[in-house]
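Input chain follows. Return structure tokens only.
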Amino acid sequence: MKNPSGPPPPSYTCFHCGKPGHYRKNCPAKGDKTFECAPRMKKSTGIPRSFLMEVKDPKTKEAMLTNTGKYVIPIINEAYASRKKEERHFLPEEPASSSSSDDPVPDELLCLICKELMTDAAVIPCCRNSYCDECIRTALLESEEHTCPTCHQTGVSPDALIANKFLHQV
């Protein structure tokens, strides 16, 4: 289409002034030195029509020109612009400041030495009580005769401790 003749199709827009109805070589603003060229519009080629939304103003951010001469923007851009606000009841709740007063930990899960929730629970063979593994090992090693803190039996080796698999699962 080196030398187009006749009127341009209705969808054609002049690349010089940005107005329809004439080709660039016949543009009325071509000789005007003060005229500022219209910015080139991106074409919407390759984007499905279902992903596009028509707009009236060609100066809309990211506006594109369709093959029918209408201005469109991608729907996803509009979705980002009018973002949905989350309602408070769908957001995660703030953690309670003192959950221990609401749900007390059962005594069976508390270490007899540190009085905290047992970590790596271990059973001592003499009296079959459960303690934190670190607490009972430290207590046995710090006592001169490896004495059990509950039943006071002497000679209890830290190697004889048994992992409490039931409390590990809890």
